[in-house]
Amino acid sequence: MSSNRAAVLAAFAEHRCSAILRTPHAAAVRPALDAAIAGGFRIVEVTLTTPNCLNHIAALCEQPGLVVGAGTVLTVEQAKEAMAAGATFLVSPVCDAQLIAFCRQHDLVSVPGTFTPSEMMQAHRAGADLVKLFPAPSNGPAFVKAVLGPLPFLKIFPTSGVTEENAGQWLAAGSFGLGFVASLFEPLDLRNGNFDAIQTRAARMIAAVRRGIRSATEADAATAATAAAAPC
Questions:
Q1: What is the pLDDT of residues 124-157, one digit of tens each?
Q2: Which of 27, 79, 111, 193 is the most exposed place for a label (fewest CB within 10 A)?
Q3: What residues pair up with 68 in beta bridges, in sequence order?
Q4: Is residue 132 annotated as part of the catalytic site, yes or no?
């Protein structure tokens, strides 16, 4: 694996969560992103439907310690523009083999959108690094756990239906990471410029993810210990 892809994937494995901004309010974009970063997020995704998205991606890439990506990437041309702006991972709501191949060719992490186990396997075989679960089924964590039973090698990254309250459940089910979208960037806060609320919420979400990681790790250790102690 190339060094850049490896570094980005290592960041995802370390932080296990991303802040994903989608808004029509141009004036809110940078303050909202800055608030999420101040709250603790180190992986940020700016969707291409956001005003001046490429300029914001380029500006964020100048900040040390951040991993910056582009979301809602639908075409190879958009992928080229996002890469030129500095994005190191590309996220799409759909599974497109051309986009996955583009990422592999250009040292970018690919996160295609999938909804079914078949789509996830298709993305994995095409070379996707993570598989975005979108949209979220009503029984999200249970769905992830069921899928990982026969397909434990998948790195499932839900980006819909993820909240501060259920972050631990998603992680306990085996989710590789979590994307916080509207639950972090609440539309009313964006419209009213209430960025302090976004920063406070971001800090709580980061804390919830860390608690979820610890709980999942402890549960795995307990399961392993029980299995080791069981008679043959």
A1: 999 999 999 999 898 999 999 999 999 999 999 9
A2: 27
A3: 44
A4: yes
Number of CB atoms found within 10 A of residue 58's CB: 15
Whether the CB-CB separation of 172 and 216 falls below 8 Å is answered with yes
Residue 176, pLDDT above cutoff 80? yes
Q: Rounded distance, CA 21 to CA 50, Å? A: 8
Backbone angles phi, psi at 198, to 5 degrees: -65, -45
Angle (CA) 172 45 55, round 5°: 170
| 0.90 surpassed by pTM | yes
Give the pLDDT of residue 229: 67
How many other C-beta atoms can be found within 10 angstroms of the C-beta atom of residue 77?
A: 9
- Measured CA to CA, the distance from residue 100 to residue 87 in angstroms comes to 15
How far, in Å, are 79, 102, 170 from residue 75 at the CA level? Answer: 6, 10, 30
CA distance 144 to 8: 23
User: Of the residues 45, 80, 145, 218, which is catalytic?
Assistant: 45
- From the list 132, 145, 155, 165, the catalytic residue is 132
Neighbour-count burial for 111-150, b at 16+ CB within 10 Å, e otherwise: bbbbbebebbbbbbebebbbbbbbebeeebbebbbebbee
Ordered by where they begin, the domains of the chain are 3-229 (3.20.20.70)
Q: Does 222 have pLDDT greater than 80?
A: no
